[in-house]
Automatic annotation (TrEMBL):
The keyword Transcription regulation applies. It comes from Pseudomonas denitrificans. GO terms for biological process: negative regulation of DNA-templated transcription. This is IclR family transcriptional regulator. InterPro entries: GAF-like_dom_sf (IPR029016), HTH_MetabolicPath_Reg (IPR050707), Tscrpt_reg_IclR_C (IPR014757), Tscrpt_reg_IclR_N (IPR005471), WH-like_DNA-bd_sf (IPR036388), WH_DNA-bd_sf (IPR036390). SUPFAM superfamilies: GAF domain-like, Winged helix' DNA-binding domain. Keywords: DNA-binding, Transcription, Transcription regulation.
């Protein structure tokens, strides 16, 4: 039985969340018709959802343009997750140590469907070309953290996630062939770390390793940012990969005792 056929499934809540997700970098503000289209609901449903969200303080309407936008109160929901996530608490000191050791920015990402989501970061002293704030999502298939996570799954799980992904090119270096990505994941399993060079953003390179729970299942990835302006691939693999692996192992060991 699918969720929407379950008597306990609340379709109004589903629509309200769809409205909130409809606002993004492309849809910073929307009128009612645009809200309905973004959430894939009727205009009358959109009107009810927007009215409720506005009354609750999650959406506001500009007095002149009459267009709707999210309010800062939406951040409270995401913050509550981070505050309750024990993995972030456990990982923070290890990420801080990794940033100090490497001199580069370190991150923790967790899986959300076919993406990885940034949940923790320690910023290194040096400039990084790409700013991805906490809460940003990046595709699994073409990033170091995503491939590190995939490498700790079974072959069937990897194939299912990759087949559900939009394997599109972001730069001229993006690997979009399923066979190539699977071969790369096999290599990551052998080496214990993943490295991605400019497949998502030009100038951006990262080295990552998976974090595993007590059952050996991946729950997150640690990655170190290694801009191509400062690092060659060879140097990043030689100097950053061992540190990323050790950090991921330390976090894995610590969460197994919780």
């Amino acid at each position: 039985m699918s969720d929407n056929e379950n008597s306990l499934f609340n379709q109004s809540l589903e629509k309200g969340l769809a409205v909130l997700r409809g606002f993004n970098a492309r849809n910073r503000t929307m009128n009612l018709a645009e809200v309905a289209e973004a959430a894939d609901i009727t205009k009358s449903s959109a009107q009810r959802m927007i009215h409720t969200l506005e009354a609750l303080g999650y959406v506001s309407k500009h007095p002149q343009t009459k267009r709707f936008q999210l309010t800062p109160q939406v951040m409270e929901i995401g913050y509550n997750y981070l505050a309750a996530d024990t993995l972030v608490d456990v990982a923070n000191p290890f990420l801080a140590e990794l940033a100090q050791t490497t001199g580069e920015t370190t991150n923790l990402t967790e899986p959300v469907r076919t993406d990885m989501l940034y949940v923790a970061r320690f910023v290194g002293p040096k400039f990084i070309p790409i700013h991805l704030p906490i809460g940003s999502r990046i595709p699994m298939y073409c990033t170091a953290s995503g491939r590190a996570f995939l490498s700790a799954l079974s072959d069937d799980e990897v194939l299912e996630l990759l087949q559900g992904s939009d394997l599109s090119s972001h730069t001229q270096y993006t690997r979009t062939s399923l066979e190539e990505i699977l071969a790369e994941i096999a290599e990551i399993r052998r080496k214990g770390y993943a490295i991605n060079s400019e497949e998502l953003f030009l100038g951006d390179m990262a080295v990552a390793a998976p974090v595993r729970n007590s059952q050996g299942r991946p729950v997150a990835s640690v990655h170190v940012v290694a801009p191509t302006s400062r690092w060659t691939r060879e140097d990043a693999e030689r100097r950053l990969a061992p540190a990323a692996i050790e950090c991921a192992r330390a976090i894995s060991t610590s969460i197994r005792t919780l």
